[in-house]
């Protein structure tokens, strides 16, 4: 570590004690070892922490594919980690949809709603992949909640889903829920 050279002749040549300048030398080997360990640690952690990417395949522009009301589920991603949903597309102004609210929690969250709708579609049409989920974000929704909604699609193996703009009618229905 640190090294000090001390003279051991005790002043024999000059008849008395004489102060001698001592040289000090600090061994930097442990400091260099620590530096290399830190560099190695940070290089390994940055290469291991790769960004997580969610693939989103967007359809080509053009006319949309018609979807039956009984095969559709609409999710309205709102603010404060609240997600609203209703069955169908909500296109009929004479019969407005009944909006329900849920959350992203694992128990009794939106995942339960999606799995229940998959069972209904499978019972009616024979294939749970016939389910189409329309995801609509409100102005107050966060990026995190949108990613959570897309994660639910992946977790529940939803084959067909679409990101759609929210309509003015849906905004008014949500405002009526939260006066």
Automatic annotation (TrEMBL):
Biased composition (Basic residues): 14-23
Record lineage: Bacteria, Pseudomonadati, Bacteroidota, Chitinophagia, Chitinophagales
Transmembrane stretches, start-end: 31-49
Topology with respect to the bilayer: Single-pass membrane protein; Single-pass type II membrane protein
GO CC term (a single one): plasma membrane
Iron among keywords: no
Comp. bias regions, Polar residues: 1-10
Subcellular location: Cell membrane
GO molecular function, one term: transmembrane transporter activity
Organism: Chitinophaga niabensis
The keyword Flavoprotein is assigned to this record: no
Name of the featured protein: Biopolymer transport protein ExbD
UniProt cross-references to Pfam families, sorted A to Z: ExbD (PF02472)
Family the UniProt entry places it in: Belongs to the ExbD/TolR family.
Region (Disordered): 1-24
Main location: membrane
UniProt keywords, alphabetically: Cell membrane, Membrane, Protein transport, Transmembrane, Transmembrane helix, Transport
Biological processes annotated in GO: protein transport
